[in-house]
UniProtKB/TrEMBL annotation:
The keyword Lipid metabolism is assigned to this record: yes
Identification of the protein by name: Neutral cholesterol ester hydrolase 1
GO biological process, one term: lipid catabolic process
Compartments where located: Cell membrane; Microsome
Length: 406
């Protein structure tokens, strides 16, 4: 009896150690908390793989559990007024300062796009709700949090188009007036895949002949910006890091475009480039675009490019609405000033760092904040029990930048 108990305890211990323990670099704070947090994500991911294998539910369908666990019903209080609206048919949450009108002064506004690899997440998650409220209170801003449709049910370009429709709708004179928003003080912002959508929207607007109101700023939090080279130093260094291992990021990329698994496999081996995309590799050439300190001891090798069977060529991977790093400099020049946050222990670090270089070279004002002990998604880990000091610091610095630049 007793030995059985001990055996079970040992087994449980071994399993926990297997799941929880992860070699995390020493300079990441609160390592154990991060390991435990990540073990939850990894177990869920294994469960999702298993479920897909058995044909029960597809991988992303199971991963959506995270979104439900963190789900909230955003409610108004004395300081923040929340309404659910449809902007040109797309669901949004509008957060406004509680005291209506007040001094009659026009407010600034942020259109916020949640992360989750275009496949997961919702504006109705605790951390996004909290962030929106904080922005309303500290910036006296109107925050529009967009509930865009998700892949794999809605592949590219649906998520982008939903977001773009919302931004176009909001930037109309009479709509801005209705929310007491100053047309000269509107920003677009988002984290991770939301940062990708934000960057893409900022690029698309100046191309739009009918567009009169321009964005004042874009704030990109550890954004995803290109799928051509999935073997940058940050992908190599951080392929097994918490929250966003390389396999998951590649899975998000491939599912954004297609449910055909052959793209996932090709992307995992960085052999998904066609002769067409090869011409754009110069825009993601990390050996030319990363500052010396970001290159680390990695040798640049351009991804191989083959003439793929046309049925395997996915044209969308070179579409700038999916891959904002792939535009020529002339399309970067008209862009609003940018805030880019990157984390050392994040596969996406070099995407953000390369975009910072390219924007600066094109003459755009850029604030690049790099967190040397940062991990992907940290800014959303601000709620107990998965709250991290670094997440709070990131949030404070991000909101401070908006305060000074919007
Ligand atoms: C990348 O940049 C290096 C210079 O840093 C250059 O030698 C190489 O040809 C470039 N490769 C591509 C594909 O642009």
């Amino acid at each position: 009896m007793r030995s059985k108990g001990i055996f079970l305890l040992l087994l449980l211990g071994a399993l926990t150690a297997y799941y929880v323990y992860l070699p995390i670099p020493d300079d990441i704070e609160e390592r154990w908390k991060l390991m435990v947090t990540d073990s939850f994500f990894r177990s869920l991911s294994h469960l999702a793989d298993f479920s897909e294998m058995l044909g029960l539910k597809d991988y992303m369908g199971v991963m959506m559990f995270i979104t439900f666990v963190e789900g909230v019903v955003p409610v108004s209080d004395e300081r923040v007024h929340v309404t659910e609206e449809a902007f040109d048919g797309v669901e949004v949450l509008v957060y406004e300062p509680g005291q209506q009108g007040g001094d009659g002064e026009l407010r600034r506004a942020v259109v916020y796009l949640h992360g989750g690899g275009w496949c997961l997440g919702s504006s109705r998650m605790g951390p996004y709700d909290l962030l929106a409220r904080q922005m309303v209170i500290e910036l006296s801003a109107v925050v529009v949090s967009v509930e865009y449709r998700l892949a794999p049910e809605h592949h590219f370009p649906v998520p982008f188009e939903d977001v773009y429709r919302v931004v176009k709708h909001f930037l109309q004179g009479q709509v801005l007036a209705q929310y007491h928003v100053d047309p000269d003080r509107v920003a677009v912002s988002g984290d991770s895949a939301g940062g990708n959508l934000a960057a893409a929207v900022a690029q698309q607007l100046p191309q739009d002949p009918g567009q009169r109101v321009a964005l004042k700023a874009q704030a990109l939090l550890y954004p995803v910006l290109q799928p051509l080279d999935l073997n940058t130093p940050s992908y190599q260094q951080n392929q097994h890091m918490p929250i966003l291992p390389k396999t998951l990021m590649v899975r998000f990329w491939s599912e954004y475009f297609t449910s055909d698994k052959s793209l996932f496999r090709a992307m995992m081996s960085n052999s998904h480039n066609s002769l067409e995309s090869a011409g754009l590799l110069k825009f993601v050439n990390w050996s030319a675009l990363l500052p010396e300190s970001f290159r680390r001891p990695y040798e640049y090798r351009a991804p191989v490019a083959e003439s793929l069977d046309p049925s395997r060529t996915i044209a969308s991977i070179v579409d700038p609405r999916a891959s904002p790093l792939l535009v020529p400099d002339s399309r970067l020049r008209p862009l609003p000033k940018a805030y880019i946050l990157t984390c050392e222990y994040d596969v996406l670090r070099d995407d953000g760092a390369m975009y910072a270089t390219r924007l600066r070279r094109a003459g755009v004002e850029v604030t690049h904040e790099h967190y040397s002990g940062g991990f992907h998604g940290a800014l959303m880990f601000t709620l107990w029990p998965t709250d991290f000091e670094i997440g709070h610091r990131m949030k404070d610095n991000y909101i401070r930048w908006l305060k000074q630049n919007l």
